[in-house]
Amino acid sequence: MPSTLAQEKDKFTPPENLTTKYAPEEVHRYMLDCMTAVGTPKPQALALADVLLAADTRGHFSHGLNRLEMYVNDVRQGVCAGDAVPTITKESVSTALVNGHNGLGPVVGNFCVDLAVKKAKETGIGWVCARGSNHYGIAGWYAMRATKEGMLGMSFTNTSPLVAPTRAKKAALGTNPLALAAPGKNGDDFVLDMATCVVAVGKIEVERRKEKPIPEGWAIDKEGQPTTNAAEGMSGALMPLGGPELHSGYKGYGLGMLVEIFCGIMSGGQYGPNVRRWMQTDREADLGQCFVAIDPTFFAPGFEDRMSDLMGHCRDMEPADESKPVLAAGDPERTHTDKVKTEGGITYHINQIKDSWKLAKVLGVKPME
Amino acid sequence: MPSTLAQEKDKFTPPENLTTKYAPEEVHRYMLDCMTAVGTPKPQALALADVLLAADTRGHFSHGLNRLEMYVNDVRQGVCAGDAVPTITKESVSTALVNGHNGLGPVVGNFCVDLAVKKAKETGIGWVCARGSNHYGIAGWYAMRATKEGMLGMSFTNTSPLVAPTRAKKAALGTNPLALAAPGKNGDDFVLDMATCVVAVGKIEVERRKEKPIPEGWAIDKEGQPTTNAAEGMSGALMPLGGPELHSGYKGYGLGMLVEIFCGIMSGGQYGPNVRRWMQTDREADLGQCFVAIDPTFFAPGFEDRMSDLMGHCRDMEPADESKPVLAAGDPERTHTDKVKTEGGITYHINQIKDSWKLAKVLGVKPME
């Protein structure tokens, strides 16, 4: 096993004059270069770069450039097969079971969505489960890929255990995100992309760094008690959506199970507590994922009109606080995408840029310019 | 329009010596008699009685005998067509759009699940959306109907607007429940049946009657502010699962939209704020519903083994509080069902029994004995 990227990166000192705003094309070029530098074939590297760039463009910086090093490391260590191509294990006109052969998550994900869309064009629905996959970035990407074909898209993935079932002391489920995208009129769309826990572990980490308390209901400590101490929450477990039992946190626990059923249980991959620990690379992830496409024209005509009407109604509602308008799922991401366009680039935190510069040096690729 | 049932019921005074425990068969007989007394044909009345009895047997008393009067009233007033038979508007090998023709919800629901199961046997999945439906009782009923065939079942329905989108002052969505049932080994099963809001309106009503405060995060007042006053919460709106924005209540709002998309938006029925008000009978409900069946044998072999293994892992986890074991979705309902069997009957609140006695008198049917 080669020495870890983190150690190698520390040998390099980034220049002081690095800028923080970069053209999306340049970020994409850099991501592609990093992945090919560790031996990923170009088509597979491209699939990953597309998803990571989309995350940053939509304002989900935790899942973009910030995650690149994890994928680089996985491929470099051989724990993820950068060159793998998924295959269909079995299929019907409307369903498929896919083996990702330990390939990059976005390679598996795109393959599965495209297959689901193809089936939905024929029969109205395509439901595809995959095993042998890896982290696939933002769940919404795969759902949105279906809306480009005028369809509803759904995507689910299991993840490393971080969330405690209601009443339990320890984690048994991942943050298990689910996504649903649906097309509205004139390019408008609904994009729900949510983890089934209250907050991502990153939000608790941020508060811990600030040495600030976290709201009660986000996490439990090692004894299974709700905690407002961020450090205790980090060493405990996340709470499912809803939080404590009094606030129906068992519904979030049930939703986490729902995602796991569609992913690990249906695909035969790893599931629940068996999924490897977060950021560990001791064995293949063998994640389970699920991708669905539904053609609304197989149902009542006028789907897009009704979709836009409902979203419009919500957006036009009187807000409790004038400064905070009512939104539809996907609106904050649309706003951030527009911002990137207006400003002509994505603005990163300087620490991210320094880190990416160091990674470029380790891999011998051109830093972002 | 005949005088309301409530007024007619007040003319009768129930005897003092009513018992509270009744054999399930007798409850079923009474439900059937009430529905046929208002002109519902027996097959349709049977579909309703089955669902209502299942709710009481599983311990969801709000959705059983307690709701019978609503269905009786709807059929009696002619706002729901007790004799309607659903028809297929269009279909593919894996999908269907159904028109419930304003029939009883359980009639529409059973029709759609059975259709979905039939399609899933052929192609691995059946996805059926219905419009022209009415209240269908517990969502889990339809999901469980698919598990009897060894399949995963899902069910969704829109409902009258009671839940406020995150940041909004007023309600725009219903409590929009979703259900997923999945078969485990040896008759074990996973049954998630949840509204996409924090708590049902009934829970707030109970606290108001007791003149007790409600936990912050359940409801908002008329100004859109979180309230701990039950009466204010009743006249305001329910909060989506997660509660306030800080605790990711927008995820619950997104899930409520997801249910609405699968129901009213896909089926072409009423949706969101257009659904008629709760308990109003001024016009047809035209609810949208969605039913899904998935045959796990079209995916990886061994589904039931993995399902039971995951549920078993969760149930065996060390609880934070020794007196509160970790459960899997459906466990509380299984416990209540066993209790009914052991005790040889369902035990109701005396007020429910008195009320049912009065309804029997109004309709000229034999009260439960």
TrEMBL record, chains A, B:
SUPFAM superfamilies: L-sulfolactate dehydrogenase-like (SSF89733). The keyword Oxidoreductase applies. Transmembrane segments: none annotated. It holds the Pfam family Ldh_2. GO terms for molecular function: oxidoreductase activity. The keyword S-adenosyl-L-methionine does not apply. Gene3D superfamilies: 1.10.1530.10, Hypothetical oxidoreductase yiak, domain 2. Keywords: Oxidoreductase. Belongs to the LDH2/MDH2 oxidoreductase family. This is Malate dehydrogenase. It comes from Petrolisthes manimaculis. The lineage of its organism: Eukaryota, Metazoa, Ecdysozoa, Arthropoda, Crustacea.
